[in-house]
Amino acid sequence: MKKLLFTLALTIGTIGLYAKNYVYCELVGTGKFLNNKIKVRVDYGQETSFWKGISYLKDENGKNIEFNSMVDAMNYFGKQGWEFVQAYVITNGNQNVCHWLLKKDVTGEDMDKAPESDEHKK
User: Fold this and answer.
1) What is the pLDDT of residues 31-83, one digit of tens each?
2) What is the DSSP letter of 69?
3) Distant-in-sequence, close-in-space partners of 29: CB < 8 Å, separation ≥ 6
4) Where are the strands (E) in 38-111, listed by range?
5) Radius of gyration (Cα) for the chain, nearest Å?
6) Half-sphere exposure of 86 (CA within 13 A, CB side)
7) Is the pTM of this model over 0.85?
8) Structural domains of the chain ordered from first start
């Protein structure tokens, strides 16, 4: 009986060691009028404000980054270790707004740190 309890405790402890920690973000892509490019806003769960306006993904010069498609944006984030989870589209008037949920494997130490809104610059 003691061997069984020991084996069970060891198994549960081992599973806990290999548990993955993820952080999530959402890419929100909107098309531009009379243009094939899209602008992407990244939601890390950060606080937003109506008064600040929409903050789109920016390059190192502070200019909005435009992508050819949501797949182009996913390739950009995939190079930084983000993985696709799920996608859905909401149509508002004549405009489609694409929402892509991504996840990234992080260490337990990093799990305690909330991602910054400009993490994409890393």
Assistant:
1) 877 778 888 888 887 776 666 666 677 888 988 888 999 999 999 999 999 99
2) S
3) 38, 39, 40, 41, 67, 70, 73, 97, 98, 99, 100
4) 38-43, 66-67, 83-92, 95-106
5) 20
6) 2
7) no
8) 20-121 (3.30.70)
